[in-house]
Design a protein that fits this description.
Oligomer: single chain
Largest sheet: 22 strands, antiparallel, barrel
Low-confidence stretches: 1-44
CATH architecture: Beta Barrel
Strand content: over 45%
Length: 670
């Protein structure tokens, strides 16, 4: 069976789309709401709001990806107040994000506009993308384009990888932390003919923890021990006629051991072996000389195999997924763009926990999108998508995006629409396995979740700064669920059930951003976010959504000397309290009022750049704050009340790291 999967994966090798060199294919060409990539130098603005995009989009550039240890995608969001990063539990190392007060499962993750990190790939997916493989990340809030489906309920996060056309035949990055966590990343791009038609890039990653660390002395590893290897090969064929073909393949092998220290008798441990293979092909075909009409196809295949044990509870699962997207775009008229398409998403899951279950989930969709641009002052994107969900029937998803620039210094945006996705309860809430509680309800079912999200943004670029690096931005976004899979905790049980009639699940999210460059080389960014999340649960006394941070504030200071020889970076954040599960109030006086405490985090890094290589030294969580007693009943892990999943704060204290980046350019760089 595995051999056949490998052959299918190699045959399908991945995803088709438009025909322009800077982007993935011409179909997305100059669309301003598309999360197209830009390449930034290490001295440029690291995090900023894009002025040109129709949707409110925060860009984390190449400089931002070098600001911290940033070993993987999860750590790349530490400077962002829009995205909150945490752990799903205290034993597996799985990371999770929140956007607009909702779990990261409601954020559509894209790899150069291909949907990724779905299903079994999601719990550890953020760990599997090395930040040094990327050129930039774009975070779009609210509902976005329907071209890639309607799973984007609260936003999209698009990753732009290093390109086969890079003038970098060799890039090496290596780092090590004081807790022995080590990372090695290699990227090597090659142009294979003088005409520049064929190019390829090889990407390699190796990381691991090699020592047992238990700083809080609770008998459990602070971070699981093990290793991760990942290899990727991406290809581009580009013909001067505009024909473009991109394809690639990636393999992942991840092995982790967490839980109690091996020296503990009858130790409660987690063993996780996660292997993955994915591939894609993208083809963009111009239909006329100026490429104003084109067609594209995207084919994507993913296979995941998970074998894991949580104490004496085994959980095994595998997933076969395929995504096909066929698109036609017409932009002959400068002000009017039309996109039509058909797509199919297929997922086949096999899961074994207390029983065995297999599920085939299918989504066949057709969509139309119309974009109107009136110069740079006004744009409107209207779209309608109809999807036939297996087991749920036909659903329509309308979406609207508006952007108005009444004067050059002011940009106003608004968007809203519907999002739909199949729930995968155990995978979406992998932390529930890190307990000895009884799991009840419909956790093997896959109901369709349904939500409406709406909001807007106003960005004012202060007139005294002609470079437009000084701005003030205000956001509001709200999400209202019509149908949702809920998770509810008590001291001994975990319940899964769907949002009942008369119940509600909603969030309101407010954010303010201010950025400036008071003098050359010195940038200041201040961000604050306030979230009001409400959810009606059967076993909680009020409707405040548990384990959701109330607010977050971030201050980032960066200074680069002339020619960027020295770069100094400092980030401070304050993370607001969250309501804990009701049963936790009686466990610790700290939770007497039902809330976790607010806590600060500090990060710092200094980089010295030389010709062809950089050396950097930094520290994370310099305040040393960690969540007290993150594991409930850690001394009795085999009893029913044991719970390692109620995480609201950092698990590791001060971490110091050092690293090097080596770049060999094809041509001499200035």
């Amino acid at each position: 069976m595995k051999r056949s999967v490998l052959l299918v994966g190699l045959f399908l090798l991945p995803a088709l789309s438009r025909a322009q060199m800077p982007d993935t294919t011409g179909i997305y060409g100059e669309r301003k709401d598309t999360l197209a990539a830009s390449v930034f130098t290490a001295g440029g603005n690291s995090n900023f709001l894009s002025k040109g995009k129709d949707i409110r989009t925060e860009v984390i550039s190449a400089a931002g990806l070098c600001k911290m240890a940033c070993c993987n995608l999860a750590e790349s969001f530490e400077n962002s107040a829009s995205v909150t990063v945490g752990y799903s539990d205290a034993v597996t190392g799985a990371r999770q994000i929140r956007l607009l007060g909702q779990s990261g499962i409601y954020v559509q993750m894209l790899d150069e506009n291909r949907p990724v990190m779905r299903g079994l790939a999601a719990p550890w997916g953020l760990n599997y993308v090395p930040s040094q493989w990327l050129e930039s990340i774009q975070i779009a809030k609210g509902v976005t384009s329907v071209i890639n489906g309607v799973e984007s309920m609260t936003g999209q996060i698009n990753m732009e990888h290093r390109k086969p056309t890079d003038e970098v035949p060799l890039y090496v990055q290596a780092s090590v932390m004081n807790d022995t966590k080590s990372d090695l990343n290699i990227a090597s791009a090659h142009q294979l003919d003088d005409m520049g038609k064929w190019s390829t890039i090889f990407l390699g990653h190796l990381s691991g923890n090699f020592m047992d660390m238990d700083h809080n002395k609770d008998g459990f590893l602070d971070d699981p021990r093990g290793y991760l290897t990942s290899l990727s090969n991406r290809w581009l064929y580009y013909d001067p006629s505009g024909l473009q073909v991109r394809f690639g393949i990636r393999g992942i092998k991840d092995n982790k051991i967490g839980g109690q220290l091996p020296t503990v008798e009858n130790a409660w441990q987690t063993n996780i072996a996660n292997n993955g293979l994915d591939g894609y092909v993208k083809v963009g075909v111009p239909l006329n000389e100026d490429n104003s009409c084109n067609m594209a196809a995207v084919i994507d295949f993913n296979y995941q195999d998970l074998a894991s044990h949580f104490g004496k509870r085994p959980y095994k699962a595998d997933q076969h997924s395929a995504f096909v997207n066929l698109l036609y775009q017409n932009q002959k008229l400068d002000a009017h763009h039309f996109t039509l398409g058909l797509s199919e998403t297929f997922d086949f899951y096999r899961e074994s926990l207390q029983s065995f279950s297999s599920s085939a989930l299918s989504d066949l969709g057709a969509f139309a999108e119309y974009t109107f641009h009136s110069g740079d002052s006004f744009s409107a994107i209207t779209s309608l998508r109809g999807d036939w969900f297996y087991g749920a029937g036909l659903r329509f998803s309308p979406r609207l995006t508006l952007k108005w620039t009444p004067v050059d210094q002011l940009v106003l945006r608004a968007n809203g629409g519907r999002g739909l996705r199949y729930s995968t309860p155990l995978i979406d809430n992998i932390g529930v396995l890190s307990t000895n509680k009884t799991i009840n309800g419909d956790y093997m079912e896959h109901p369709l979740e349904d939500a409406w999200t709406f909001g807007g943004n106003a960005t004012w670029y202060l007139p005294f700064d002609k470079s437009q690096k000084t701005y003030l931005s205000l956001d509001y976004f709200g999400t209202r669920f019509v149908s949702q899979m809920l998770v509810d905790y008590t001291a001994t049980d975990i319940y899964f059930y769907t949002l009942g009639q008369g119940g509600y699940s909603r969030t309101d999210n407010f954010q303010v951003d201010f950025a400036t460059e008071p003098f050359r080389g010195f940038t200041v960014t201040i961000t604050g976010r306030l979230t009001d999340a409400r959810q009606s649960l059967d076993h909680q006394k009020d409707d405040i959504k548990p384990m959701t941070s109330r607010y977050k504030g971030v201050l980032n200071l960066q200074y680069a000397t002339r020619l960027n020889k020295w770069i100094f970076d400092f980030t401070a954040s304050v993370n607001g309290p969250c309501k804990v599960w009701d049963f936790m109030k009686d466990l610790d006086p700290m939770y007497a009022d039902g809330y976790s405490p607010a806590y600060p985090l500090l990060y710092a890094q200094v980089t010295r750049r030389f010709k062809g290589f950089d050396i950097y030294l930094g520290g994370e969580n310099l305040t040393g704050f960690t969540q007290p007693s993150p594991i409930i009943n850690a001394s009795t892990p085999w009893e029913q009340g044991f719970d390692a999943s109620c995480i609201w704060g950092p698990l590791m204290g001060v971490r110091v790291y050092g690293g090097i980046r080596l770049t060999i350019w094809k041509t001499e760089r200035i």
